[in-house]
Amino acid sequence: MKMLIPLAIFLFLLPAFVPSAYLYFIGLALIFAVLVASWDLMVGYTGQVNLGHTTFVGLGAYIAAIMQVPSRIGANFDVHPLLAAFLAGIFSALVGLGVGLLTLRLRGYYFSLVTAILPLVFMQKVFIWRSVFGGEEGFSIPTEKLLVATALEKYYLAAVFAVVSIALMLLVTRSKIGLRFRAVRDSEELAEALGIDAAKYKILAFVLSSFFAGIAGAIFVNYRMTVAPDLYDVPLMLLIILSAVIGGLGTLWGPFFVGILVYLAKNWWLTAFRFGIVNEEIILYTILIAAAILMPRGIYNEIRERLKRSES
Fold first, then answer.
1. Residue 291 has what pLDDT?
2. Stretch (H or E) spanning 128
3. In which residue ranges of the chain is pLDDT below 50?
4. Could you give the CA distance from residue 148 to residue 176 in angstroms, rounded to a whole number?
5. Per residue in 65-105, pLDDT tens?
6. Torsion over CA of 159, 201, 85 and 174, rounded to 10 degrees?
7. Judging by beta carbons within 10 Å of its beta carbon (0-12, 13-18, 19+), is residue 286 exposed, middle or buried?
8. pLDDT at position 183, please?
9. Which residues on adjacent β-strands are paired with residue 226?
């Protein structure tokens, strides 16, 4: 928690030194970083590999968007965007609970295979019910229905969301619940022998992870003013996994900070240069794979280990 206050101060002061055009990308990077940290909350702390995290991002995004534009379903009600985001998180958590109850008793690769299919299943609904979800192009949210309007307001929305989310996740992981998560991760059989209900805590981790992903999806919608199937996409899931693994699983801070760097590299830094016939994504993934090979325990763990060595 020591890093939380300096992070909050830094993010609060950043707009004084960075042009608003760049703030837009930094805000998106902060939302993406929460997605990476929320994936780590389950995978890094319970050891259950969820390959369908984008399912809950997309669900949260579409649920919030429909509540903010109820005419898509032929309704006429008024929901505040903040409430819509919270309800989107709750809905994603409930779906996560249902999926967890059905699948988290599976062991090994079976759970991962089931979750890998989920985004494809939910994405098909977007194409089938085009009149509601907008098909491949999605649909836009009118400016008057958005939570924030200007680039600066969007940035601060993302910054507050990131700080609050990482604070809540840190509270969970440093509580007795977090200890039980780690016990399940280290040895499920030993944890059960000690009286810990492994299935219960795996489901709890899945629900919490889904909740933060759902709210992040809703924040994405208010940030970029549109909702589209790309929030379910496999490339987004791959980027989340790589960011978390390279950052250091089971640390939260590592995935969070590396998530920011990876998003900015993909959508800003690498696109600022022309690489001829070589795609920017190929360069990014090559760098990420090399980092994973050179630092298999993650950047955060590597830095912490070197600091300990230098102090001793």
1. 81
2. helix 109-128
3. none
4. 37
5. 999 999 999 888 888 999 999 999 999 999 999 998 888 77
6. -20
7. exposed
8. 94
9. 140
C-alpha span between 91 and 56 (Å, rounded) = 9
User: Tell me: the pLDDT tens digits for 268-286?
Assistant: 877 766 555 566 777 777 8
* d(C-alpha 11, C-alpha 221), whole Å: 21
Which has the closest alpha carbon to 172: 115, 220, 211, 215?
A: 211
Return the C-alpha torsion angle 28, 33, 39, 40, nearest 10.
180
Between helices 253-264 and 151-173, what is the axis angle to 10°?
Answer: 150
Q: Which phi-psi region, left, alpha or beta, contains residue 140 (left: φ > 0; alpha: ψ -120 to 50)?
A: beta
Alpha carbons 217 and 230: distance in angstroms, whole number? 11
What integer pLDDT is reported at residue 144 of this predicted model? 87
Predicted confidence at residue 108, as pLDDT, reads 66
Across the strands, what pairs with 140? 226
Q: Quote the strand ranges of the chain, DSSP E.
A: 139-140, 226-227
Which tokens go with 264? 């900015």
Q: The dihedral of CA 251, 290, 237, 164: what is its sign?
A: positive
* pLDDT for the residue numbered 275: 58
In angstroms, the CA 259 to CA 300 distance is 12
End-to-end CA gap in the chain: 24
Short-list 14, 147, 175, 9, CA closest to 82? 147
The pLDDT value recorded for residue 78 is 83
- pLDDT the model gives residue 312: 65
